[in-house]
Amino acid sequence: MITKENILRHELIGLPVEVVQAANPAQRGIAGRIMDETRNMLVIGTPRGAKRIEKAHATFRITLPGGTVVDVSGSALVSQPEKRITKTVRI
Predict the structure, then answer these.
(1) Does the global pTM surpass 0.85?
(2) DSSP H or E segment with residue 74
(3) How many domains does the chain have?
(4) pLDDT per residue rounded down to tens, the chain (91 residues)
């Protein structure tokens, strides 16, 4: 079960997301579903098409199944997804 404590160890694709902080002001407020994830980028599907957001310079508000909302620093997500889910994370 995905919770705010273990979100970094789970698959993010398919979850609703909003960019709440970004180095590029034009990216703030972008919302949709996570379509893909690479080492440095999240691809967010929006009504206006897919948007690529660099993880390292953004903060994401992710809505978990069940309605819990979690703000995640993109710098904590920078890693290949398949490697991130096996790492232990100290908070």
Answers:
(1) yes
(2) helix 74-77
(3) 1
(4) 888 888 888 899 999 999 999 999 999 999 999 999 999 999 999 999 999 999 999 999 999 999 999 999 999 999 888 887 776 655 5
